[in-house]
Amino acid sequence: MSGAPGAATPAAERRETARALVSSPLPLPTTTRLVLLVLVAGAGASFAAWWWLVLGQGNWPGAQLACLPAAEGAPDAVLARFTGCVNDVRLTQSAVVLCGPLGLLALALLGRAAGRRLSLWRWSAQPDRSSLSARLTAVLPDEDGGPRPTLWVRGGRRIGSRARASGTVRKPWIVADSHVFALPDRQVEAMLRHELAHLRLRDVGRVRLAVAAWWILLAGVTLPVGVALLLDPGLLAAGLLARMPVVLVVLLLTLCAVLRVREHDADLAAEADPRAPLGATAEHLASDVPPNRRQRLRRAVGLASHPTSATRLDVLADPARAWGVSAAECLATGLAAGLLFTELALLVASLMPGRAQLAYGITGLLTGWAVAGVVVVAWWRAVAVGHRDASGGRAARAGATLGLGVLVGSQLSGRAAGDWVRDTGTADGLATALSLTDAPRAQVLALTVALMIGGALFATWSTSLARAARAEVTGPHSAPACAAAVVLSGLLVAVPLGSWFLFARLAAARAAPDIRWSVIATPWWVTGVLVSVGGALAPLARAAWRTGEGPTARRFRPVTVLACAGVLVAAGAGWATVGGGSAGTSAASVTRSSGPPATVTARPGSPATTGDETVPIEDLPVLPPKDERTARLRADTALVCRALTLGGTVIWTDPQRRRDTAELLGGLDDTVLRAASAVLLREPTGPVDREALVASLLRCDLYFRYHR
């Protein structure tokens, strides 16, 4: 990139480097940072749509009650029609939830279009008819075949010394402050080149769209939901009110980071202009006025839209600095991934009811691709320019921060605001409890450690793969190789990421150890993990084999790290599965049809316990002893459904308990529950009929919610 050895000056070498970076087929930092905004905004809009359009409408009682059979029929047919109808309603609800991101996009597009004209009115801008337009023409590239930007001059009392790019791709314009007339020609041309670079990189419209989306989330989601919670506070109000502002601030900080990064990209693009005098951009930046007190305060809290002049000059002096990936960026990516997964998993699960493990794996795949589109591309860029952020130690620490961000993001989700199943009185599949606040501390610690080590493992693999594939800034294979790495990364993290969230969901519900163990004691899970590990090692081993330099210790060092980290991740997952037991639980908890049934423990000293012993769920006095049950109690749907939802797995797996449960269901005046009773009594000692189990829980859920 530097030309003939010894023939180019350092300034010319920097220009060549800047030209290579901005013309690289790899996505620029501005592009990947914008992906974070898309993830967080989409997750927030999805939750808001569910809050207003599903939960706020009572989960559509008319549609769900219409699923109740009007007449008797064959038991299997009754159960199939009922569960199929309820699942169809939930699928429709999921489609409605998707209206949130689509509505946000539509409103953001309208806001962006209106904002362009409003900005001209607010700035009192007028079309320029002076010699300033000639200066703009002088800096336009000769080979630029696009539309010529229109120059506007900003008037009014607030006079600065800046210019800004705006408009659309077809009708671009540049708005300059009136004070620009007094600047030297060299500085004016450098300023205009910078704004033309924004238009050439096409980041103006995308950034305006992101700004509009943030304001819409503030005015259309956070404030209305907050007012609704304040007017009608419930058990979930405190958790939601604490989380929504935090997510909005994270989105704002990410937006400000995008605004700062785009300035670096535009500086490099302006510096790469072959017609510009060497050092003109740096000279213009050095002449910037010192920031005032307000600007210094905004920069201190991360809300500045422009980087400091010193930072911009440092990037111009070493253009490769712009292609680093910091721990803060990884943390923000993890937060976005955690928020996205909690919303996306519910939508995917509604497409395949009864296959939670597969649904979480598919969600892990989609989320993994989104994360890889940010951090894997960023690490690929860092390796291509030899940035120190791609070194083993720094990359591993950034990866651990990525994993920590996923944990924090999952807990900042509205789904973690409390026990939705308990506090909303519904076991609806879209009201999943994910809060780890009351989960056993040992399990939470194990999940945290496993996630952070997994993140470090992912970062080490990504950077090692980029080095093994000889990542480069330019070239015919640079972009395809990076895209292949992104696709492969999503495939490798699908099962581990999906399994982690499934473990977290079971830990939040304080599920029994045998239920947690059943997640990994399956051929599907083992196969997925083997594919992940094998797929991670195969490219590195192949690249090391083809080098011809021999398997040196240095070359195989990443593989050693991968192997050691894999053992630690497996140990953490095992402890999260079998560790903790019932110790540390402080309140009763139940999972219904939204997850596997769980045992319940009670606080020591409560009526359900004696001394410090924990009473198993099957011994809780849900119903009187069998010989004391009157006909009225046996025919009470509320009591029977309460016993059903609190009974845990034992009432289905134990033949005698299953027979007792079936007899109770058969004595109720309900078509669905009587059909489930008939199916369960058909073979009490055989395998549990899943359709009867699910239909019974769904029917009881509707009864508790609508009292019908």
What would you say this structure looks like, in words?
The protein is mainly alpha-helical and 708 residues long. Helix content is 64%, strand content 3%. It is built from 27 helices and four strands. A four-stranded mixed sheet has the order 1-2-4-3, with helices on both faces. A hairpin with a 4-residue loop joins strand 3 (163-167) and strand 4 (172-177). Helix 23 packs across helix 27 (690-706). It starts with 9 loop residues before the first helix and ends with a helix. The model is unreliable at 1-7, 547-556 and 575-621 (pLDDT under 50).
The computed structural class is mainly alpha
**Overall 3D form:** elongated
Question: Total strand count, please?
Answer: 4
Tally of separate helices:
27
The rounded Rg comes to: 30 Å
pLDDT < 50 runs, ≥5 residues: 1-7, 547-556, 575-621
Largest sheet: 4 strands, mixed
Q: Work out the strand percent.
A: under 5%
Q: Termini separation (Å)?
A: 74 Å
What would the average pLDDT be, to the nearest integer? 79
Helical proportion, percent range: 55-70%
Side by side, the strands of the main sheet go 1-2-4-3
